[in-house]
Write a structure and sequence with these properties.
With 842 residues, the chain is of the alpha/beta class. The protein is 47% helix and 11% strand. The chain is built from 26 helices and 17 strands. A hairpin with a 6-residue loop joins strand 14 (792-793) and strand 15 (800-806).
């Protein structure tokens, strides 16, 4: 057994009967191979597999082209399976009667090449074919079957084991495809999923979901501090005056709360002076902020960044310069939109994200903040007295204890028990008069006095009952006076602090904080005004394109998938980019957004727009190469239709797998990404106007129609031409939901292959070998039907059987290879005899 090729190497289909590959120019061959690989989104592989379609007579006529194919420049191996369709030409030597011969060039020999002769693709029910113009539908299926890499390798290897390296096929194939109803329903569901629902979108954009450039714009315009007062400037100096005055007020408030403040009011005058200075400085600070708010003239962006910076500098305020550019914003916006779409978000979800981004970065006028400034400047400490908090039970208990300690007196010194209560009442009354409108009230003094009096009365009664001597009261009086004095000073300190803070320091500090916060928010609107407006406008322009795309998707969902495609897409000479075969290819060497001119910039004349060089995914040459590529399959009935096929083909209707709708939605996303690719250059340069949006929206509609027509003609397994090559695509089980048992039965029940249909007419059967050892059988089915592949068995009198499991599991069935009779194949090393044009073929 020969060394197998890498399974990643694709099978390249070349039809030498077409005018495309006529002639002997090797550059034409290489261009055709590159175009077919590009059409599948593939680069040049290490190994090459070629499936070449030709006629038996073409082996001699196209000998040079076959030599070029076998000698194709590639790092690895080149293997060729040549599918010959049509009858064998008749050859005669001198006076001998004419015989049917297959003249094979010496270059097409095993193990690197093999010949498969299908003389009649209708298995004996076709008309005589004089020129090899085989039934296109039958040929399409046969090419698809042989183009599966696993089956390609097994077929080529088995042909190499047969005499002369030539075989005639017999087969029976089960083809799985979606029914028109399932395909249409999945298409509509994918369109609606791709468009998205009308549910409310996110309300916050987090920096973790944004590229660095956009995250900086959002943070700088919502939560950052890109501006501040300049040290030594007028705004900074006035603010420092407010801060210094408040610091002085806090220091004098400590003095006022001391015993000296209770006795002679120390610190009160200084406290009121500091508060007056703070109020005056705060008022001037507010006036400066008002000038900052009015410096934009009430219209954001009316001034340039330099003009705004000059005006703010006169007020002693500076704003950090922007560190980004329009090109960086456009590239970041592109990265964000593409990332969201590739993550599977619907168009409406991406639209909502970009709308929210535009809302967050859009600079706003500071005029509405003037009213907020007026409210801050009007706020002032209340003029009404601030009553103290009622003394708690713990304080009253300690007051009663102080009265009890000073009331342990007996007659005749019993009146001394009133010393502590009287002093507490006098001290509290002093506090009441010391702070006008302050916390002290006569009722509070009465509470303290009553608690102390009750304690003293209880102590005196207990002392009299116990018969304590008179001097016992002298021992308790100092303790009572000490505890009472501590309670008095503590209460005074608390009340003085509360009075000073609530009536002066705290309101002014809150006012300063409010003005600082207002200034910070105002300066955000002056930061990076041009860049933020550029970002908002660019985001909204993309939103407009996405909304038009949503409309196009919803309109497409209303159409019947089985209906004829639009006229623009139905023209046979048009490729999937919408250009005709007569068009000169555009210059695809320069990506959009990188050259001197972009077709999506706003032009002077509409004729400047051209669709001929639309790149995709950064591969600018792929689409031009794809223009000349052969279609995925030759023309024939649409998949899932009831059109009659060849007798050896059975069509099975799949019900669709779990990955069907997500995969189709992903294809639609790739179509949108392809349409948007050339648009980003215009976004980066700020030229994404209405005309560009309309053309992109129209481009999306065209590509949706391409996707629709591709699904309609090729079913879901082959990816559309614009599908991203890096996106993993599910297999037949996930997309089609194929009946595994039926596929296994199609590959298994006929051990000898006796039920297969030979692809030769009755007359051609005489050219096949009758030797049972010159027959091989391949049974192929999707990977999901059974673990393992490549198993083979041999039995006496039976053909060798190979079991192949394919990744592209659209087909299941059996392929029998029968060698040709000895003497039918003639190998030549140089051109010998050319066939006359009038020779009969069959």
């Amino acid at each position: 057994m020969s060394t197998p090729l890498s399974q990643s190497a694709p099978v390249v289909h070349l039809d030498l009967r077409t005018a495309e590959l006529a002639g002997e120019d090797p550059a034409v061959l290489r261009a055709a191979v590159s175009a077919r690989l590009a059409a599948q989104g593939l680069a040049q592989p290490h190994d090459q597999r070629f499936l070449v379609v030709d006629t038996p007579a073409g082996l001699d006529e196209h000998r040079t082209r076959f030599e070029q194919i076998m000698g194709y420049r590639t790092p690895g191996r080149v293997r060729v399976l040549c599918l010959l369709v049509g009858g064998l030409p008749a050859r005669s030597d001198e006076d001998l009667p004419a015989e049917r011969r297959l003249v094979r060039p010496a270059t097409l020999r095993a193990p690197e090449a093999g010949l498969l002769w299908a003389g009649d693709l209708q298995a004996g029910h076709g008309a005589a074919d004089q020129a090899g113009h085989a039934d296109p539908q039958a040929l399409a299926v046969l090419v698809d079957v042989l183009a599966m890499p696993e089956l390609f390798d097994e077929t080529l290897e088995l042909i190499g084991s047969l005499p002369d390296g030539v075989a005639a096929p017999a087969l029976r194939v089960l083809e799985h495809g979606l029914s028109p109803e399932v395909r249409g329903q999945a298409w509509n569901e994918a369109l609606l999923r791709f468009a998205g629902s009308h549910t409310s979108g996110p309300t916050v954009l987090t920096g973790a979901t944004l590229p660095t450039t956009l995250a900086g714009l959002v943070a700088g315009s919502t939560t950052g501090t890109p501006g501040r007062p300049v040290d030594g400037g007028e705004t900074s100096r006035v603010r420092h005056e407010v801060v210094d005055a408040l610091s002085d007020a806090e220091a004098e408030l400590v003095t006022l709360g001391s015993p000296a403040g209770l006795v002679n009011g120390a610190g009160r005058r200084e406290l009121e002076s500091a508060l007056d200075r703070a109020r005056s400085a705060l008022d001037r600070y507010g006036s400066l902020i008002g000038k900052v708010l009015r410096s934009d003239g009430g219209t954001v962006g009316a001034q340039s960044g330099a003009e705004s910076a000059t005006r703010l500098a006169r007020l002693g305020v500076a704003v950090d310069p922007a560190t980004t550019s329009g090109e960086q914003i456009g590239e970041s916006l592109r990265s964000l939109a593409l990332g969201l779409l590739r993550d599977g978000l619907s168009l409406r979800s991406v639209e909502q994200q970009l709308s929210l981004l535009a809302e967050q970065v859009q600079p706003l006028s500071n005029a509405p903040r003037i009213a907020e400034l007026d409210r801050l400047r009007e706020s002032a400490p209340p003029d009404r007295p601030l009553p103290p908090d009622p003394p708690g039970s713990g304080v009253l208990a300690l007051t009663g204890l102080a009265g009890a300690l000073g009331g342990v007196w007996t007659w005749p010194a019993l009146p001394a028990a009133l010393t502590v209560p009287v002093l507490l009442v006098l001290g509290m009354l002093r506090a009441v008069t010391r702070l006008p409108g302050g916390p002290g009230r006569a009722s509070d003094a009465g509470r303290f006095g009553m608690a102390a009096l009750l304690g003293a009365a209880a102590a005196a009664a207990a002392a009299g009952a116990a018969g304590l001597p008179v001097w016992a009261g002298a021992l308790g009086l100092p303790a009572g006076l000490g505890l009472g004095g501590w309670l008095l000073l503590r209460t005074w300190h608390d009340h003085a602090q509360r009075w000073g803070l609530e009536r002066g320091v705290t309101p002014l500090q809150d006012g300063l904080n409010g003005l600082d916060e207002l200034l910070a928010r105002a300066l955000r609107e002056f930061w990076a005004v041009e860049e933020r407006r550029y970002c908002a406008d660019a985001a909204l322009s993309v939103v407009g394109v996405l909304r038009a795309s949503v409309t196009a998707a919803e309109e497409e969902a209303t159409r019947d998938l089985g209906a004829d495609p639009p006229q623009a897409m139905a023209e046979s000479d048009d490729d999937w980019l919408g250009r005709t075969a007569d068009d000169e290819p555009g210059d695809a060497s320069t990506p959009y957004g990188r050259g001197d001119h972009n077709q999506y910039d706003e032009p002077d004349e509409p004729d400047e727009y051209d669709w001929t060089s639309v790149p995709s995914g950064g591969d600018t040459g792929r689409r031009e190469e794809a223009r000349t590529a052969a279609p995925f399959r030759p023309a024939g009935p649409l998949p899932g239709t009831a059109a009659a096929g060849p007798r050896w083909l059975e069509r099975g209707e799949a019900k669709g797998g779990p990955d069907l709708v997500p995969t189709l939605a992903g294809d639609l996303t790739d179509a949108t990404l392809t349409a948007l690719e050339p648009y980003w250059g215009a976004v980066e340069r700020g030229h994404a106007g209405d005309a560009a949006q309309e053309r992109i929206a129209e481009r999306v509609r065209e590509l949706l129609a391409v996707a629709r027509d591709h699904l309609r003609r090729n079913d879901v397994l082959p990816a559309p031409p614009f599908a991203a090559p890096h996106r993993a695509r599910s297999g037949p089980a996930g997309l089609l939901g194929i009946d595994i048992r039926r596929a296994a039965d199609a590959a298994g029940p006929d051990q000898d292959g006796q039920g297969l249909l030979q692809l030769n007419s009755a007359e051609q059967l005489d050219l096949l070998s009758r030797n049972p050892d010159a027959v091989a059988l391949i049974r192929f089915a999707p990977e999901a039907t059974q673990d393992g592949s490549g198993a083979h068995r041999t039995s006496p009198g039976r053909p060798e059987v190979r079991d192949v499991r394919t990744a592209a599991g659209r087909y299941a069935g059996q392929l029998r290879l029968t060698a040709l009779r000895a003497g039918v194949v003639e190998t030549v090393r140089q051109r010998q005899v050319s066939l006359p044009e009038e020779e009969e073929q069959w």
